[in-house]
From TrEMBL:
The lineage of its organism: Bacteria, Bacillati, Actinomycetota, Actinomycetes, Micrococcales. This is Carbohydrate ABC transporter substrate-binding protein, CUT1 family. Residues 351-371 are annotated as: Disordered. CDD domains: PBP2_TMBP_like. Signal peptide: none annotated. InterPro entries: Bact_solute-bd_prot1, SBP. It comes from the Bacteria. SUPFAM superfamilies: Periplasmic binding protein-like II.
Length: 441
């Protein structure tokens, strides 16, 4: 999850174990359901797949015997925590190792690095070859993030968007019948509710320099800005960006919790909301169960969801793939690796994961009532609306993502603490441009 993120930052879905699973072949049948011919040769009958600890992975493993029976292939899964996954990729991909065929990776965290270093195979022809599989069914924002220099290098498997969480009871008490449709309405409604309810913040969100960047991004886009302009230059001190920094920081400074810290990620911000201490909260939709589960939330029965409010440039939330599947370009088994990806990202597998609360990459599944029957109705409606105009990144698209987030996140912290957001944005822009220049050498 992103945005929750991210990268995903949805640590709520992680598990701690490291498992290596080999699943045996049940039977050898044809490939009719997995698409066309094998121009690259059949390769090994064993497909080696490296996946992250995630609910998506656990769901997939339960269905693997079906794939093996259908194809006659054997799938060997290595399942790792995110840090261990990164360490393994760092070692094996740098060495040009061929013992990974399919890799689960974070498009917005390491996607540019992997693509630039040619670790990811070009899948452009493959995604277009099977009309029944239907590449056109995938959401546009996530597709942007798995495309590098006009080449498809990954298939989105887990997606997320930023949504507005709110307290229905507090809105009703204040005389409001609907959630805010614009950021200006959000600000005025948050101010009124805060004034009526001592000890309750009007608004809460992430405040940490790096964690806040992903959630701030939707504010930035909705004000008409971005981290980098169309010419690849730093854009964090444009008038639009300065307005976004000042607005986001001002919401928290003026309408946020008393004595708010500037090191909150999603767990801390979510805790304030679920303890009943805030009226509005902007966050990744993938984390919604933290707010609606009575075991985790004191306000579970009064939580509502709405599309991200519109700014001067409209409502432009991020719509991203927190995880994707790619093929190791050094693999000697690309054809069978692709057969696995086709199956793992099929409508049926995406539907099963969506039912389990893992939003996938397909528009048709997101619109299928069977996929979202257990989701709050207003969240389903908000997700559908935001998928139409979502932006495919929630952080700067660079190789050294962590360093970039530290730079562009500084004006957020400065705005929250009452410093001049415009001056901070100017300083960040100069530093970020130098960062971009160095990275592009």
């Amino acid at each position: 999850m992103a945005g929750a993120t991210t990268g995903t930052e949805t640590d709520v879905l992680r598990q701690s174990s490291v498992i290596v699973t080999s699943l045996a072949v049940a039977a050898a049948l044809g490939l009719s359901a997995c698409g066309g011919g094998d121009a690259e040769g059949s390769g090994s009958k064993t497909v080696r797949v490296t996946l992250a600890n995630h609910v998506w992975t656990d769901n997939l493993k339960k269905a693997l015997p079906e794939f093996e029976k259908q194809t006659g292939l054997k799938v060997e899964i290595t399942q790792l925590g995110e840090d261990q996954l990164s360490d393994q990729y760092n070692v094996k991909l740098n060495a040009g190792s061929s013992d990974i065929d399919v890799m689960m990776y974070r498009p917005l965290q390491e996607g540019k690095l992997f693509a630039k270093n040619k670790y990811l195979a070009d899948l452009t022809d493959k995604v277009k070859s099977n009309k029944d599989w239907n590449w056109g069914d995938f959401k546009s924002g996530p597709v942007q993030a798995t495309t590098y220099e006009n080449k498809v290098v990954g298939v989105p498997i887990i997606t997320e968007q930023e949504v507005l969480y709110y307290r229905k009871d507090l809105l009703k008490k204040a005389g409001y019948t609907n959630p805010p449709k614009t950021l200006d309405e959000l600000k005025s409604m948050a101010a009124k509710i805060k004034s009526q309810n001592p000890g309750v913040a009007g608004f809460v969100a992430r405040t940490g320099k790096s964690p806040a960047v992903t959630q701030f991004s939707s504010f930035l886009y909705s004000f008409g800005g971005d981290f980098v302009d169309s010419n690849g230059k730093s854009a964090v001190n444009t008038p639009e960006a300065k307005q976004a920094y000042a607005f986001y920081g001002g919401l928290i400074k003026d309408l946020g919790p008393a004595n708010v810290s500037t090191d909150m990620g999603w767990p801390e911000a979510m805790a304030i909301f679920t303890q009943g201490k805030a009226a509005f909260y902007t966050e990744a939709n993938s984390l919604y169960k933290n707010a609606t589960d009575p075991a985790k939330s004191k306000v579970s029965g009064t939580v509502g969801f709405a599309p991200f409010p519109a700014g001067p440039a409209g409502s432009k939330p991020y719509s991203i793939p927190s995880w994707a599947l790619g093929v190791n370009d050094a693999s000697n088994n690309k054809a069978n690796a692709w057969k696995f990806i086709e199956w793992a990202t099929s409508k049926q597998q995406t539907l099963e994961n969506e039912k389990a609360g893992v939003p996938g990459g397909r528009t048709s599944v997101a619109e299928d009532p069977a996929a979202t029957a257990t989701y709050p109705k207003d969240l389903v409606e908000a997700n559908a609306e935001m998928a139409k105009n979502g932006v495919g990144h929630d952080r700067p698209l660079v190789v050294k993502v962590a360093e970039a987030r530290e730079i562009v996140g500084q004006p957020i912290v400065d705005a929250i603490t009452g410093k001049d957001a415009g001056a901070s944005a100017d300083a960040a822009n100069e530093k970020f441009q130098k960062f971009l220049d160095d990275e592009n050498k």
